[in-house]
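Q&A FORM
Asked by: J.P.
Topic: structure of Gastrula zinc finger protein XlCGF57.1

PROVIDED:
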Amino acid sequence: MEDTKVIEELMEAGKKHHDTCPQCGKSFSCEQTLNLHMKLHSGMELYECDQCEKIFTLKGNLNKHMKIHTDEKPFTCDQCEKKFRNKANLNEHMKIHTGEMPYSCDQCGKKFRHKGNLNTHLRIHTGKKPFTCDQCGKNYRYKGNYNDHMKIHSGEKLHRCDQCGKRFLQKEYLQKHMRVHTGEKPHTCDQCGKNFTHKGNYKEHMKIHSGEKPFACDQCGKSFRHKANYNDHMRIHTGEKQFTCDQCEKSFIQKGKLNEHMKIHTGEKPFTCDQCGKSFRKSSVFKVHQLTHSRDRIYKCDHCSKRFFRADFLKDHLTVHTQERPYVCSLCAKSFRQMGTLKTHLKRHSGVKDHICSECGKTFFTVHALKKHQSIHTGEKPSQCSHSDKTFTWPEYLKIHETVHAEEKPHTCFQCGKKFRLKGFLYEHMKIHTGAMPYSCDQCERKFRHKGSLNTHMRIHTGEKPFTCDQCGKSFRHKGNYNDHMKIHSGEKPHSCDQCGRSFIQKEHLKNHIRIHTGEKPFTCGQCGKGFMKKERLIKHMKIH
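REPLIED BY: S.T.
REPLY: Here is the structure written out as tokens.
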């Protein structure tokens, strides 16, 4: 094998030269190959392939090589009858049946069937990218990715569909594509009669009927129907994110997620509604949007008469009434009413924030959070109150505000008799009586009564300071602190002492000041009983003890 490699390298190195043998007139691409050929005339024992004229120093290597031309495959697998040219390839194949994975990564413990796969995997840990494009200098970790990239430069798509003109890199891809035009679905399920274009899809479908989930995670015991889903899941344990964006270097567990992410950079929104012209980045969101034009809300809730476009929307809604939380996180056991909420939650475990602000580069877990953030840059407040000149960024904020103008408060707390304009306000209030604190921070486990309080708290961990002063550029985590700061620039001091007329920016500062007049000292030292007007003075005093 080593001799073959050397000869191939020599032949490759001299492609630009043409040397002729003086003995027999044969031409060669380089001097070294000619010299090797000359040894045949000198009487040195060399072995030449009579099919392609390759030369070997060992007869055994020639014999192995000849199997390429004869298509001879003498080694047969006794499990599945697949045939191989040499025994080494058969031995590697047998590991599929035995389940043997003898090669283990000493960095993350992941196991592999073949040593070559382990070597390739190790590049994730070492950061090695050995395949470099000589056209643009781009580096790749995997040979397959490099080869695909090179076709971009060469424009090579040899296989063309004669129906629509679409071109493909491989003939196999063209053959599969042709079924789109012919409508051929040759693979039929004998359980339910469903037809499939591709055999792979048929095989995956059959697992639904058999209940088979052959891919089990040895870390947490979770089983999967599809190998791809198993592989994706395993990357949660290994932390492996092999798909990297070449624009911002963000990494993803799944290639599909990378493809979705790339549309952020390209601005591509390939799914356009022919009813209203609105464009969408994702097919799933586009399909849901189309329902608003094409269907009646035929699915009605028996509890509150609310109607929905789709049965799954109704199913999700019903959990509001039943309090059912069927979607459970496999990592922390937290449960959710909707699958979408679980998916968003899982991003917090993975750290994936795939929604990027084009203005400042800040990333978010959800598109909703991104849109809220973007209103800071645009200053846009399209939702206007019909009773006043006040405007709001989001319709839900307007809805809450408009209850101020409504005198009616139909929702009463049966514990204390307090009345509320909105049912949501009553629900939030009830947590005071029940002690419920359902919103938990997944960073420090601190619990909160209200979702808004959790969201505000999360800024401590993310470092987010969304409220920026346009006068001096200072940023604040909380809206209240921002408002107080703005009074410094405006000179506004709305809180006045009725004893001496002194004014203050903050109400809290006025309260502290009033103690001078009242003599109140609410902060008492537990050691000596001394009282203080301000907490910071008590803390300073405690250092004496």
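FOLLOW-UP: The chain has 20 helices and 38 strands.
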